[in-house]
């Protein structure tokens, strides 16, 4: 027997926290009866339905996508816009995957998808220390003062960001913009955009080039590939690394 929310997460419906919301909103039936009670226990002999669809425990899948700009990081969109799930091959959509965290509509780059709610929580939950690396094109010519501020932490509206790695990659004097590399170990809402907003350099283009050790290498925009068992293990291990104040593994290029 296991708790209903865990069962839902295991079937790839949503993360455990989201599954609780789904249960309390009355969308779940067990053996034909609506269940809103959180501690309710089910076994493999019970028939569990969400929104009228009978669930079955599916294999867990873990994917890396090179997300294009102009796509929403969610499973579905009320306005019918393209989502990271809707652009997946049909046979993968059947596994009810969801994105591991979010990239903004206008952000491109590496995004993981899975149907394993536990895995998602480990990687993007509040305790995770997984590194995320971004290339940020900002408006204006930024100096080392700016990257230092970003690296030491800035106030993004009631929250001071943790230590980060930040360096200037290239200055475009003609178009008055700067390309900056940032590596963070957290993931607040619109964090990168808000960090650069806080120092007066609005973001023009944002690309996530690395998530843990996973990059977009070998993936065209919109393409996905399966993560290897080793990559999955490393992602979990890196997420659980102790919270060190000083970042960050310098990337050799
Ligand atoms: N930070 C942002 O501001 N946007 C993203 O998409 C990712 C990180």
3D architecture notes:
The chain is α+β, with helices and mostly antiparallel strands. 22% of the residues lie in helices and 27% in strands. It folds into three domains: 53 residues, RNA-binding S4 domain (Structural Genomics Hypothetical 15.5 Kd Protein In mrcA-pckA Intergenic Region, Chain A, Roll), CATH 3.10.290; 88 residues, Pseudouridine synthase I, catalytic domain, N-terminal subdomain (Alpha-Beta Plaits), CATH 3.30.70.580; 80 residues, Alpha-L RNA-binding motif (Alpha-Beta Plaits, 2-Layer Sandwich). Strands 7, 8, 9, 10, 11, 12, 13, 14 and 15 form a nine-stranded mixed beta sheet that branches. A hairpin with a 4-residue loop joins strand 11 and strand 12. The longest helix is centred in the C-terminal third of the chain and has 11 residues. Uracil (URA) binds next to helix 6.
């Amino acid at each position: 027997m296991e708790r209903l929310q865990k069962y839902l997460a295991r079937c790839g419906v949503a993360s455990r926290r989201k599954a609780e919301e789904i249960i309390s909103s009355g969308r779940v039936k067990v053996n034909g009866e609506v269940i809103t009670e959180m501690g309710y226990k089910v076994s493999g002999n019970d028939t569990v339905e969400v929104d009228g669809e009978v669930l079955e425990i599916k294999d867990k899948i873990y994917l890396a996508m090179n997300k294009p700009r102009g796509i929403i990081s969610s499973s579905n969109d009320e306005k019918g816009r393209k989502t990271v799930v809707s652009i997946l091959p049909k046979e993968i959509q059947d596994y009810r995957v969801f994105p591991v965290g979010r990239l903004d509509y206008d952000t491109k780059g590496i995004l993981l998808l899975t149907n394993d709610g536990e895995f998602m929580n480990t990687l993007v939950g509040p305790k995770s220390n997984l590194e995320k690396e971004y290339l940020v094109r900002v408006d204006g010519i930024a100096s080392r003062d700016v990257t230092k501020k970003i690296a030491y932490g800035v106030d993004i509206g009631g929250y001071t960001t943790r230590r980060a790695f930040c360096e200037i990659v290239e200055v475009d004097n003609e178009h008055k913009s700067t390309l900056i590399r940032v590596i963070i170990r957290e993931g607040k809402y619109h964090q990168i955009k808000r960090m650069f907003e806080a120092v007066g350099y609005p973001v023009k283009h944002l690309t996530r080039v690395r998530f843990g050790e996973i990059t977009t290498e070998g993936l065209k925009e919109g393409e996905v590939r399966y993560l290897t068992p080793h990559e999955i293990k490393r992602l979990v291990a890196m997420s659980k690394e102790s919270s060190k104040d000083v970042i960050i593994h310098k990337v050799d290029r």
